[in-house]
Design goal:
Pfam families: POR (PF01558). The protein is α/β, with parallel strands linked by helices. The protein has one domain: Pyruvate-ferredoxin oxidoreductase, PFOR, domain III (Pyruvate-ferredoxin Oxidoreductase, domain 3, 3-Layer(aba) Sandwich). It is 48% helix and 20% strand. The protein contains 8 helices and 6 strands, in the order E-H-E-E-E-H-E-H-H-E-H-H-H-H.
């Protein structure tokens, strides 16, 4: 059995770092992992995606037929990742907006969330996350990637434990940055608890009205 994760964002958001952390944590749990990176114009804010395949997999790239989880660190890049698959089970989407080069070059406006949801969001459970605000609360805007990992852990979207991720964080970041990233992970997990409550409440309301 294989669990497929695609991470998407732009250069400078720590997409590859997040992919490495998820991969190493999964390996610590005793699972087979393959990770691949696809770089756009990453030095100029271009698209960057990382595929992490956990379990009985042989190719490094997730096939177009199905992806279990998309983690998007930027709004448009999240929907681009969803669009690239025929089926996506769940998507965690940071609501951060970073104007992509393609829009700037053609002088187009950034599309609104509602339009993106209507065009690309059908058939996928999409959870918006105010990850930028949470990262700043942790101490750095660059910690969005770790906030999103925390949210995914808290929603039980990873086939490994928080302890395994914490071990990898301690092995990844120098002491002066570790505290911020540990806080970002904790805040992401805490946010997932509030998200679960909202999901249950919305389900109850829908059941009562049906």
């Amino acid at each position: 059995m294989t669990y497929n994760i695609r991470l998407a964002g732009v250069g400078g958001q720590g997409i590859i770092t997040a992919g490495n952390i998820i991969s190493e944590a999964a390996m610590r749990s005793g699972q087979k992992v393959i990770m691949s990176e696809i770089h756009g114009l990453s030095q100029r804010g271009g698209s960057v995606t990382v595929d992490v395949r956990i379990g009985d997999c042989y190719g490094p790239i997730i096939s177009q037929s199905s992806c279990d989880l998309v983690i998007g660190l930027e709004l448009i890049e999240t929907f681009r990742a969803i669009e690239s698959f025929e089926n996506v089970g769940t998507a965690l989407m940071s609501t951060e907006k970073i104007n992509p080069i393609s829009l700037s070059m053609h002088k187009k406006e950034y599309p609104c969330l509602e339009d993106l949801m209507e065009k690309y969001g059908m058939g996928t459970r999409i959870y918006p996350v105010e990850a930028g605000e949470i990262a700043m609360e942790a101490g750095s805007s660059k910690a969005v990637n770790i906030v999103m990992i925390g949210v995914a852990l808290g929603l039980n979207l990873f086939p490994m434990t928080a302890d395994e991720v914490v071990y990898v964080l301690k092995d990844t970041f120098p002491e002066k940055k570790l505290g911020i990233n540990m806080k970002a992970l904790e805040l992401g997990i805490a946010l997932s608890g509030r998200m679960k409550t909202n999901i249950r409440e919305n389900s109850t309301i829908q059941n009562r009205s049906s």
